[in-house]
Design goal:
globular, mainly alpha, about 80% helix
Length: about 270
């Protein structure tokens, strides 16, 4: 595999539009599933409270699901960057490319400071997550504690994907990435000044949001399957690169749906009375 094998020249603009529409439909279906479950859940409430509670919970869970996709994409960006950079390093090492110039400087930097670079990539993925859910796709209906829970689920989301990629025999080495995120997850549950009640609260919050994790994994998995089956994504490539492309399309779909939601929910100005 060569360094320039990460792009698919056959993935034309028309195919990208088709894949984007598939991502859009997938996100809409997930929204409808959530709305249907919420509608059933609020049916036990008094009739005069149902619509208000349905509207509130629908908005909350829609934005939590969008945060799940944003978090998954941000975490995926780090994992994909690690795989690509490590592959470039392996190509330089295997082909005996001169250690002078840009490739040489990268080779020495990766050899001596690989762990620090991985830590930097994790920090950058957190920054990317914040930029996405505060500036590009602002999710103002959910609070910071809810976002923190979903971001922790995003790490678990990434670990499950990496375990699956190892299972199907992808040649990449994902163990360092999984260990980094596993450490971050453990640190989120158990930190130096945490009480036992804090630990139980964190466990409860994650458990209550597990359906969003299942929904997110089902959506990304189905879209990846479509992408690889239709030839939009490269099977000869590392599977994680195709998964990252898939999440970029999901992110674009979330952005479009979020903008549509803002436009349609904006209160109309009242007509002047003659």
């Amino acid at each position: 595999m060569t360094i320039d094998a990460y792009l698919n020249p056959d993935f034309t603009l028309i195919k990208k539009l088709i894949f984007f529409v598939a991502a859009l439909i997938g996100v809409v279906i997930c929204n409808l599933i959530m709305f249907g479950i919420i509608r059933i859940a609020v049916a036990v409430l008094p009739r005069n409270q149902r619509e208000e509670e349905f509207a509130h919970k629908s908005k909350v869970y829609q934005q939590l699901f969008y945060e799940m996709i944003i978090s998954g994409t941000s975490v995926m960006s780090f994992a994909c960057a690690y795989v690509v950079l490590n592959h470039v390093y392996s190509v330089i090492e295997a082909n005996g490319i001169s250690t002078h110039g840009a490739y040489g400087r990268f080779y020495m930097l990766w050899s001596d400071g690989k762990d620090f670079i991985l830590l930097l990539l994790i920090c950058l993925s957190c920054v990317l997550n914040t930029i996405l859910d505060k500036l590009i796709i602002p999710l103002g209906y959910i609070d910071k504690d809810q976002k923190a829970t979903i971001r922790m689920l995003g790490m678990f989301y990434m670990i499950i994907i990496l375990l699956f990629l190892n299972l199907i025999g992808d040649e990449s080495e994902y163990s360092p990435v999984m260990m980094y995120y596993l450490g971050l997850m453990v640190g989120r549950f158990v930190y130096f000044d945490a009480s036992f009640m804090d630990f139980l609260t964190a466990i409860k919050n994650v458990f209550l949001k597990l359906p969003l994790l299942v929904l997110g994994l089902s959506l990304s998995g189905a879209l990846c399957f479509i992408g690889f089956k239709a030839g939009f994504l490269l099977e000869r490539n590392y599977y994680i690169v195709g998964a990252f492309y898939t999440h970029l399309f999901l992110l674009a779909a979330v952005f479009v749906l979020h903008i549509i939601s803002l436009i349609t929910s904006h209160p109309k100005k009242s007509e002047p009375v003659d």
